[in-house]
Amino acid sequence: MHNIPDGEKWLWTPAQPDRQAKRQMIALQQLPELLRRVKELEKRLEAMGEPPAASEPD
Asked: Is-above-0.85 flag for pTM?
């Protein structure tokens, strides 16, 4: 708390500039939908005969 320059706002843990923290919060909120879309695209590729790229196991 004592290392934050005057006039700046920091959020989250670990503390980071507020703009960066807010962008990460928004990205986390969008993550479930993005994962759903990637899964659907992988299914479409498989249906076309294209193997999906290597990914983490379910």
From this structure: no
